[in-house]
Amino acid sequence: MQAQRSVPMKSTFERSGYLGSMPVAYGITVRAITCRAAVDPDAIRWILATEQPALVYDWELDRVVREVLLMDGVVFPENRQVPLLDCHNRWSVDDQLGSVTDFKQTLVGQYQAIDGLIRFAADDKAMRTRQKVVDQHLTDGSAGYRVLNAIWVPDEVEVVIRGRTFVGPLKVSTDWMLKEFTLTPIGADSLAKATRGSGSAGRLARNSGCLPHSRA
User: Fold this and answer.
1) Which segments carry the region annotation Disordered (predicted)?
2) Is 183 helix (H, G, I), strand (E, B) or coil?
3) Helix (H) or strand (E) holding 149
4) Residues with Cβ within 8 Å of residue 10, at least 6 apart in sequence
5) How far is CA 199 from CA 175, 196, 206, in A?
6) What tens digit of pLDDT does each residue of 76-90 get?
7) Which of 116, 81, 84, 82 is nearest to 97 (CA)?
8) Is the pTM for the entire model greater than 0.70?
9) In-domain check, residue 206
10) Would you call the peptide bond into 169 cis, given omega within 30 degrees of 0 as the criterion?
């Protein structure tokens, strides 16, 4: 297949809005991930995003597309912390369950990934959510991010981006800012899972095979 020119996509701007019945922000993209074992609820290492292609809604194209997030293009807030939210709700401080810090590059299978340390707040709602994680009822999460720069690779077109080959149709987000991480009842990315924890719950995660190989 002969390589052809890809199409740069414009940056998007963050604005408040709704997608179906779920409040989101225009320009904010979300992708779901899954954890399959409980770890220490006060110190959860959780895979936040991977380079595995995922189906996401693209605000500029106004449709669902396959997207790859390049992990070397992630931008974090200056304070190196993002909120831990309840189902992407961001309209009240009560929607914040805690925070995510200590971001690290890692590897999940063949895919580059980013993980972070999740800590819950001490209020009743956060404690109830934490218990659902400990009891392994709540297993899924989703990253919310703003795409800063992206390249659209048309159907059956092969392009090289940062030394790597991609085949369309595919959106390759080369630069993106992590805005939040949310806990949600249903996730999608089978490769993204909780990783290291401390105490007996952390040992449970290791024994159940929830730990991907890490370069961090």
Assistant:
1) 196-216
2) strand
3) strand 140-153
4) 60
5) 36, 10, 11
6) 999 999 999 998 888
7) 84
8) yes
9) no
10) yes
Note down the domain range covering 58: 44-183
Length of the chain: 216
Q: CB burial class (10 A; 0-12, 13-18, 19+) of residue 206? A: middle
Helix, strand, or coil here: 189?
strand
3-state DSSP call for residue 105? strand
Give the Cα separation of 183 and 195 in Å (integer).
Answer: 16
Tokens 């693209």: give the residue.
58
For residue 97 the two structure tokens come to 């369950």
Would 156 be classed as within a structural domain? yes
Two tokens, residue 127 = 């404690």
Contact 33, 47 (CB under 8 A): yes
Using only C-alpha atoms, the chain has a radius of gyration, in whole angstroms, of 17
C-beta separation of 143 from 34 below 8 A: no
List pLDDT tens digits, range 159-208.
999 999 999 999 999 999 999 999 988 765 555 444 534 333 333 333 33
Nearest Cα to 73, choosing from 5, 181, 151, 170?
A: 151
For β-strands 74-75 and 170-184, DSSP reports them as: parallel
In this structure, is residue 73 part of a structural domain?
yes
- Domain count of the fold of the chain: 1
